[in-house]
Write a structure and sequence with these properties.
About 55% of the residues lie in helices and about 10% in strands. The protein is an alpha/beta fold. It is globular, with a radius of gyration of 27 Å.
């Protein structure tokens, strides 16, 4: 009987732990289940509904249409899969999102279980779940590839370790498959194989042999990335000169405060974590080479972020570092001397409660911004006939592709036949509209609602424009597929003058579009832009120093308007 219990008990413990982690995930993030579309969801839904997985995985032009800086085709695949399962309905998306978050915690528990007692493995997984980065990304569908990438990475490590224990090449190839999926999610998971060589399992030769397929994939991935994006390193293009070195150093020093908080109890948590890690290192109960290599693999990709946009919030940029800290804390607590008193679990509980309090405060402070997204998207997902949306946000192109993107997805997936909502960003254009024909609205932060713009008519009560306005993007550059409406036009001449690229072209624009943009897609951000001889105002042009001639229904294309 005792032998039978020794076999059953680990399985029962594992099952209970998995159910507990699943429950904690949904309880801690239950507000996400009532959330609507947020951030870049509209654009991602539009993109996923336009293209198939074979397009954005295998067609470089379409892959670049998603991102010019990062190779992350698995993210639109997540939206594509959810569109197939749930249609354009956010609740199903959030359920899938939280299931993957729970998957990250469960796989963390199973991985730690290889070296630690179940209670410490469970404590480390719970600590990861209740941290500020985890609670923040749980509310953002657009970062689902961070979650999926972490889950695939943990599965890859777990399967790799088991392959060494059992000397199984089948498991080694399974680990390779999980690793390939992780790299398709996000570049930050590419260095994973370099850390596996330092795990205390098997002989060095065996570890090298089983990691060799992953190293081979790094070479394939590097070629894939270069063929698609023309670069080997990801990151954001800086709009300005970026942060100074003192500012970068200040960000690094401030990371513990972002993760743990600055209240007295939070300072105590930081002190306890520091003492735990110091003691574990002093007693040599932590795999120091492995920890150093993992820390380098996790932290080095964050260096470009210090330049732009900066690490100022415990968001997705700190998601992977937070996972590493949670794992180290679990190992450190488990390495303390055992005692008849459960003081080690008391320390774990103190860390979990302290971290959870701070994380709840961080998410509460972010909630108004999330509600604002919910409200705006509900407007754009509704019928909203003859509606014009006014926003002080000057990035009209982003608003058009994001907010009206949800209408494109609804039309394509559900046949909704919604007309585009006009978007205006210049207040002076409000007086040029006929507000008797249109409902001119804006977002009001004080009530978290959409309300009518008060008295937009000029003093004489007359408006110049009677048709529905809208932001019109003019795409002049294949092969990137435009994810928006575009006008007919032609590039007449391209010439190079030193480091400058000069482009001349024409397009026919509707007189009813009050605000327009030319979008010229280039492999990298231009250092500066310039336009000449425009018949009407243009919101922005993306290119190197360029020359653009715009015509509007000119009878003779040989002469400029």
């Amino acid at each position: 009987m005792s032998g039978l219990l020794s076999i059953v008990r680990p399985h029962v413990t594992t099952s209970i732990s998995i159910l507990a982690l699943l429950a904690i995930t949904f309880l801690a993030n239950q507000s996400a289940l009532s959330a609507f579309w947020r951030f870049d969801d509209g654009w991602l839904l539009d993109y996923a509904s336009r293209f198939s997985p074979s397009d954005y995985f295998l067609n470089p032009a379409i892959t670049r249409g998603y991102s010019l800086n990062n190779l992350t085709p698995f993210n639109p695949f997540i939206y594509d899969m959810n569109l197939w399962l749930f249609g354009v309905s956010p609740r199903g998306f959030y359920v899938q999102h939280l299931l993957v978050m729970a998957g990250c915690a469960i796989t963390t528990f199973l991985l730690l279980r290889i070296w630690l007692a179940p209670r410490f493995a469970l404590a480390g997984s719970v600590l990861f779940l209740v941290g500020a980065p985890s609670l923040i990304v749980s509310q953002q569908l657009m970062v689902g590839h961070y979650l999926a990438g972490l889950m695939f990475s943990i599965l890859s490590v777990h399967t790799y370790v088991r392959s060494i224990e059992r000397e199984s090449w089948r498991l080694a190839l399974t680990a390779l498959l999980f690793y390939i999926l992780a790299t398709a999610c996000k570049e930050i998971y590419v260095p994973l194989p370099l850390t596996l060589l330092f795990i205390h399992k098997g002989t060095p030769g065996r570890r090298i042999m089983h990691a060799a397929p992953m190293v081979g994939w790094i070479l394939c991935y590097t070629l894939w990335r270069y063929l698609v994006l023309g670069s080997l390193i990801g990151g954001y293009d800086t709009i300005s000169q970026g942060n100074t070195w003192p500012e970068k150093l200040s960000q690094l020093v401030g990371i513990p405060q972002l993760l743990f908080g600055s209240a007295p109890v939070n300072i105590a948590v930081i002190v306890v974590v520091g003492a735990l890690v110091s003691y574990t290192l002093y007693k040599r109960r932590l795999n120091l080479p492995l920890t150093m290599v993992i820390a380098a693999a996790v932290l080095l990709p964050m260096v470009p972020l210090l330049e732009f946009p900066g690490i100022t919030r415990p968001n997705r940029y700190l998601f992977l570092p937070w996972w590493l800290i949670s794992v180290i804390c679990a190992v450190a607590v488990a390495s303390l001397p055992s005692s008849k008193h459960p003081y080690r679990m008391g320390i774990s509980l103190f860390l979990i409660v302290g971290v959870a309090i701070h994380a709840h405060q961080v998410r509460s402070s972010a909630q108004p911004g999330l509600h604002a997204f919910d409200t705006k998207y509900r407007l754009f997902a509704s019928q909203a006939p003859d509606t014009v949306y006014f926003s002080s946000n000057k990035d009209a192109y982003h608003q058009e592709t994001v907010l009206n993107g949800i209408r494109n997805a609804l039309n394509r997936v559900h046949g909704a036949k919604l007309q585009r909502v006009g978007i205006l960003t210049k207040r002076e254009n409000l007086t040029r509209l006929n507000n008797r024909k249109f409902s001119i609205v804006q977002y009001d932060q004080s009530c978290n609602c959409i309300r009518e713009v008060e008295n937009p008519l000029p003093e004489n009560g007359k408006s110049k424009y009677s048709e529905q306005p809208g932001v019109l993007e003019v795409a002049l550059s294949p092969p990137y597929p435009p994810l928006f409406e575009y006008a007919a036009g032609e590039i007449e001449h391209i010439s190079v003058d030193g480091s400058n690229l000069n482009i001349k072209g024409w397009t026919e624009l509707s007189n009813e579009d009050l605000e327009q943009q030319f979008l010229i897609v280039t492999p990298g951000r231009p250092e500066q832009t310039h336009r000449i001889n425009s018949c009407r105002g243009i919101a922005s042009i993306y290119a190197w120093v360029i020359a653009v001639r715009q015509r509007q229904n000119c009878p003779d294309r040989g002469s400029a308007c």
